[in-house]
Specification:
Layout: E1 7-8, E2 15-16, H1 21-29, H2 32-38, H3 45-54, H4 59-70, H5 73-76, H6 86-91, H7 112-116, H8 120-130, H9 144-154
Antiparallel strand pairs: 1-2
């Protein structure tokens, strides 16, 4: 059979377009380099490439999950000491993990009450009982002598 001639299916007689092994491998590797560039730990690239070819995956979903996961507290602490090897991350399908509260990663602006551990609601109740004619203002706007009085009362 000539290589230029199309392959014909013996049962239905239709033309078959066979992919070469090289083409199949290239298709399976599609997106791997983009993943590798985004992953923060560069270990065992050939093994990761092999895993990549075996896994069913959605590149966009993997990259989106990776972007969120890279900012997680576990991956940030101790200089990235707890970032798994990319092969482990791929083998375990970690892009499908649920339950991370990424909103908790947003830095919270510190206030005087958060720095010294004061509950604004409890402080407001105390003030309204102690000074019934006072207006409802945040602790940070209280007169300093009233702030000291409250802090002393809760210790």
């Amino acid at each position: 059979m000539n290589k230029d001639e199309p392959d014909i299916c013996p049962c239905c007689g239709q033309e078959i377009e066979l992919q070469t092994t090289k083409t199949k491998r290239r298709n399976r590797l599609q997106g791997f380099e983009e993943f590798w560039a985004a992953y923060p730990r560069k270990i065992a690239k050939p093994y990761c490439r092999e895993i990549w070819t075996r896994k069913e995956r959605n590149l966009q979903m993997i990259l989106a999950s990776l972007k969120k996961t890279k900012s997680s507290p576990d991956w940030q602490k101790e200089g990235g000491k707890f970032i798994p090897n990319p092969s482990t991350w791929l083998n375990q399908g970690r892009w499908e993990d649920e339950g991370m509260d990424y909103s908790a990663l947003t830095p919270v602006k510190q206030t005087i009450t958060s720095r010294i551990g004061i509950n604004e609601q409890e402080a407001a109740i105390w003030r309204s009982e102690k000074y019934p004619s006072s207006t409802d203002v945040p602790f940070a706007e209280w007169p300093s002598d009233v702030q000291r009085e409250y802090i002393t009362s809760i210790k």
